[in-house]
Amino acid sequence: MTTAVLERPRAGSTRHGRGFWLIAAVYLVALAFSTVPTPLYPLYQRADGFSAFVVTVVFAVYAVGVITSLLLAGHISDWTGRRRVLYAALGLEILAGVVFLTWTALPGLIAARFLTGLGVGMLTATATAYLLELHKAHRPGAAGTRFEVVSSAANLGGLGAGTLVAGALAQFVTAPLRTPYVVFLVLLALSVIAVAAAPETVDTPAARPKYRPQGVRIAGDRGAVVVAALSSFAAFAVFGLFTSLAPGFVAGALHHPSRLLAGVVVFVVFGAGAAGQALSRRFTTGLITQATGLVVLALGMATTSLAGFLAGGMIAGAGAGILFKSAVSTVAGGAPAARRGESLAGLFLIAYSGLVVPVLGLGLAGRYVASTTSMLWFAGLLLALLSGTATLSWRRGR
Fold it and tell me: What domains sit in the chain, N to C, each tagged with a CATH number?
């Protein structure tokens, strides 16, 4: 049974244009909330006395929540409606915010991160499909450039903004493990109102399809899908490094313990990713830029240079942003309307695997070798993956 997606409402609908920007703002806020704990991990470590490896476990719990949610619910907005799924996702994030606020010990941190992951998993594919449909409704026949730039910028810009806001608040307020969550609980509540004001784009069928878990199902040309999947995995591996271990590396190996700096480091990487998406959409440019950034990052780590570490992160982040934008554009454009949410959920499932698998590997390696050594291994393996992706893309082009 197929689901009718409302692709052709009134041309130039003002309501759909307003809804496009409302959902973009919701997407940004929800993703920003997901990275609030990043610059706070050193504070949690000092309060509870756990190691850097436990930080990777906490981060992995978040990613497991995302993947679980993508598997179970990432595709159901294709037939239940986009707004219903966004309500549920925001509800989970609000619940996570309450847990963060009231239970600052390690078990509470783990529970809150898992809830956050569940919310993000439901939201990412749904919000991306929603933005594309609102864009088409507002500008029928127009190119998808606005959708590509805004959806990718909301994703990466939100991830970066969360660390910057949390880092600044943690540096200058008296309750650094609580105040950031109060601020974002207010923003999440406003996001629920924003979703209510946006028009629905899915016509719910009279008889619902039989439920089944998502799996990794991405509609479209197989070769293009494989390249998109590998690109998204490589891009999110860089983002995973900077949202988990980078703040601790900067505070420890590089001897810069500022909480604001920890937030700025991550913001710079995601900000560069968003800027890269706005400046380029070429897949090859993304590959070359990310590879170059990884080399600079490795040199910065080997020489314990904060400037080199930041420069490498910026360049690699810009390349990762371009690759991720290319992957989303490929999948969103190649999937039929009735399978768009499902296909994007499959892509995000692979991308978030890239977020967790390398980081867990780094955490395990860090128990036996120096953090600089394990991160250099990470850079080398990721360069090999980018090389393989480039080769596959070149063969497909031929």
Answer: 10-202+217-397 (1.20.1250.20)
